[in-house]
Design goal:
With about 375 residues, this protein is an alpha/beta fold. It has two domains: about 10-15 and about 265-385, Aspartate Aminotransferase, domain 1, CATH 3.90.1150.10; about 20-260, 3-Layer(aba) Sandwich (Aspartate Aminotransferase, domain 2), CATH 3.40.640.10. It is built from 13 helices and 14 strands. The longest helix is centred in the last third of the chain and has 39 residues, at about 245-285. The chain is globular and about 65 Å long. It starts with 7 loop residues before the first strand and ends with a helix. It binds pyridoxal-5'-phosphate. Pyridoxal-5'-phosphate binds next to helix 4.
């Protein structure tokens, strides 16, 4: 196969490059304004002021109070803090023992909930999703019990891009007085994350998914939600997340979120056009392929497919040889292709669920990039099927 002329990055759901304006905003906070935000002196206070400005920016985008914004070390940590924090607080207050979730959560949520069940004796109800990866809010309603202490449902799925009916689930949770957490890591910078419109009590985001730095996240915690910190230590972040705060990271997250919000709607229109062209042509030009995820209720930049009888991991390797970055939902354990857990939960049989491919577009992708993929991919699939 002939190599493509330039490299094409189409894995923006894995991570994004840091926007140069974000790098610039962070620059002073490495060695000029380097104080510890807990220090009483001028150095510390200067850093603390920058941190509070970052908090206000995030609060503005989420439509919440600055005091409800907790900076964390990642999206994973935000999920851990939300789920374990609320469950442990409920345990402490003897309020209940039951958590509701869905089967296609990221491991940061899924494994945390499993740990609550396996090590801490919580009961877990996993509400199924349909063939498009969507949960029915009425099923969530039926799963809620008198001893339910938390519902956690992601805003948008990382593997198939499906957007969940969070506002409807939020209204149900409010009716029952049960806190709702949403992992909005894939949705941040792409959907409206106003916490009141969504009706959520806790929401996780991670800067590196919206052109910010890696290793910094935010957990929104609605005032009044009781939380036991998942880490123990000092009193940083109002006692909810101990550890000297990553000021440069927080500044970077806030600037990246502000910039993403500024162009969100316009960029979504552009990405959706590219995505739809990609999806349409792939379905037209390749036999035995299915679109995975919801046909319309999906993230604007997200195209994902299942190819029957082809290993997704092999497609990713072949695309990489052509200079194209994509990803597969299927993990490979010792050479044995393992079906994607997400696709399996959506009802895909194994011969389809091993063949997952995700192409996620970003700010730098053009129509020409899409056309290159459309030229290369059918050849790769045909070659692998031989
Ligand atoms: C839906 C979802 N949740 C959580 C995470 C974890 O975020 P982080 O990489 O910041 O730990 C990811 C990252 O891939 C994700 O896609």
């Amino acid at each position: 196969m002939e190599p493509t002329r330039h490299r094409i990055y189409m894995d923006h759901s894995a991570t994004t490059p840091v926007d140069p304006r974000v790098v610039e905003a962070m620059r002073p906070y490495w060695s000029e304004v380097f104080g510890n935000t807990s220090s009483a002196h001028a150095w510390g206070q200067e850093a603390a002021a920058a941190l509070e400005r970052a908090r206000e920016t995030v609060a503005e985008v989420l439509g919440c109070r600055p005091s409800e914004v907790v900076f964390t070390g990642s999206g994973t940590e935000a999920d851990n803090l939300a789920i374990r924090g609320v469950a442990w607080a409920a345990r402490k207050a003897e309020r209940g023992n039951h958590v509701v979730t869905i089967p296609i959560e990221h491991h940061a949520v899924g494994h945390t909930v499993e740990q609550l069940r396996d090590l801490f004796g919580f009961e877990v109800t996993v509400v199924p999703v349909d063939e498009h990866g969507r949960v029915d809010p009425d099923d969530v309603r039926r799963a809620i019990r008198a001893d339910t202490v938390l519902v956690t449902v992601m805003t948008a799925n990382n593997e198939v891009g499906t957007v969940q009916p969070i506002a409807e689930i939020g209204a149900i949770c409010r009716e029952f007085g049960v806190p709702l957490h949403t992992d909005a890591v894939q949705a941040a910078g792409r959907l409206d994350l106003n916490v009141d419109r969504l009706g959520v009590d806790l929401l996780s985001i991670s800067a590196h998914k919206f052109y910010g730095p890696k290793g910094v996240g935010v957990l929104y915690v609605r005032r009044g939600v009781d939380l036991v910190p998942a880490l123990t230590g000092g009193g940083h972040e109002r006692g909810r997340r101990p550890g000297t705060v990553n000021v440069a990271g927080a500044v970077g997250l806030a600037e990246a979120l502000r910039l993403a919000e500024e162009i969100r709607e316009e960029e979504n229109v552009r990405l959706q056009m590219l995505r739809d062209r990609l999806i349409e042509r792939v379905l037209e030009s390749i036999p035995d392929v299915r679109l995975t995820g919801h046909p319309t209720e999906r993230l604007a930049h997200h195209a994902s497919f299942a190819f029957r009888g082809v290993e997704g991991a092999s497609v990713v390797v072949q695309l990489d040889l052509e200079g194209i970055a994509a990803s597969s939902g299927a993990a490979c354990a010792e050479g044995e292709p393992e079906p994607s857990g997400v696709l399996t939960a959506m009802g895909f049989p194994p011969e389809w669920a091993v063949g997952a491919l995700r192409l996620t577009l970003g700010r730098d992708n053009t129509e020409a990039d899409v056309d290159t993929v459309l030229e290369v991919l059918p050849r790769i699939i045909a070659h692998l099927r031989q």
